[in-house]
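I hope you will forgive my troubling you with a question about protein structure. Here, with my thanks, is the record as I have it:
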Amino acid sequence: MKLIIAIIQPHKLEDVLQELDKKEIHLKTVSNVLGCGRQKGATEVYRGRKETGNMLKKVRLEIAVNENYLEPAISAITKGAKTGKIGDGKIFVLDLAQVIRIRTGEKGGEAIG
């Protein structure tokens, strides 16, 4: 079991979600976050407004997957988020020690779905 954390540009969220749906990856959590990386606060245009400062608006996706969905999820995120410009984001993959579905008590891969 793995936890995928992806930090992407806000305007690419819909593209990433569409790509994940194509790979039948439907369980995800999305959060709005602030951050900076190699852009170092470079000006970015978001919804017609210039965003400046060293903390830029980003979107954080968290997706728990079983091993057989890991590579499809990574390729979907990469395809949907990539613009080829600085600031496209990062994908982090972490091991999950345990997953428990609260409603049923299922554990491990069955709890992920």
In short: Strands lie at 2-8, 29-35, 44-46, 49-51, 56-65, 89-95. Residues 43 and 52 are 5 Å apart (CA to CA). The first strand starts at residue 2 and ends at 8. The chain has a mean pLDDT of 90.
